[in-house]
Amino acid sequence: MRLILLGCPGAGKGTQARFVCERYGIPQVSTGDMLRHAIKEGTPLGQQVKSIMQQGTLVSDDIIIELVKERIQEPDCKNGFLLDGFPRTLPQAEALTHEGVTIEYVIDIHVEDEEIIHRMTGRRFHPGSGRTYHVDYHPPKQAGMDDETGEPLIQRDDDKEETVRKRLEVFHAQTKPMMEYYLKEFKSKGVPQFHCIDGRAKVSEVTKEILAILDGGVSCPS
Ligand code: AP5
Fold it and tell me: Which of 206, 184, 204 lies closest to 194 in space, CA to CA?
């Protein structure tokens, strides 16, 4: 299975990706996680993208497309993958098509901007694994600690309110038009299936809805 999870920053893509990947035994390909890892390791890529991410703007298409092209050629992607945070611009979506990658499902998790600010400022993150929590909505068993390793959780640099607002602005300007690309593809060819779901529901309800689509091929409401 090859699918894309779309949605604004904080819509819940990373949270839901983990459940889907576990269910279908496919890897989560998160461009944000890959870039954060590069920053943590101090690689040339990390040094190049650090300030861009801190500002909440987008890394250049060339860098990102190359990163994803290489990643999806790795053996664990042979039977499918879930793209989280990619594509984010029209050239990125077109590059995927150009590479001959067939996507079966595009799922857009929709949440209004006002809700996002609360979500992001309450988000906590386990740097080692990428596991994500929220202090109110999805708390760890022990406050401030990762459920599986017991290691401390951190707050991401780009989760400060002013940066979140910038990321939302970038999303509306650059990523929303890209979503139209898949909606149009779906309307004209029926592939990939395009589904828009309400991301304001509880984490478990959103998961249920996504798995119902993937398990049962629920028809597109658009
Ligand atoms: P990236 O890491 O991709 O960030 P993002 O898309 O902005 O999305 P997030 O990871 O912040 O949010 P999410 O939707 O995964 O939400 P989550 O599940 O964590 O990108 C970061 C940066 O990298 C970009 O700004 C850019 O600079 C660069 N970059 C990355 N990809 C790029 C690309 N393709 N092109 C160019 N640049 C790129 O949930 C958020 C919080 O809400 C959590 O605390 C969670 O517990 C909680 N939550 C989740 N679901 C619910 C729910 N249903 N109810 C209540 N709370 C919930």
Answer: 184
Query: pLDDT averaged over the chain?
Result: 93
* Domain range enclosing 149: 2-26+79-214
From the CB of 134, is ligand 1 less than 6 Å away? Answer: yes
Of 2, 123, 124, 131, catalytic: 123
Instruction: Give the pLDDT confidence score for residue 10 in this predicted structure.
Output: 93
Question: Residue 167: what residue type?
Answer: R
| CB-count exposure of residue 22 (10 Å: 0-12, 13-18, 19+) | exposed
Q: How many domains are there within the chain?
A: 1
- From the list 140, 133, 174, 139, the residue with the least C-alpha distance to 156 is 133
pTM flag (> 0.90)? yes
Q: For residues 138 and 54, what is the distance between their CA atoms, to the nearest angstrom?
A: 25
Check if 18 is active-site: no
CATH number at residue 7: 3.40.50.300
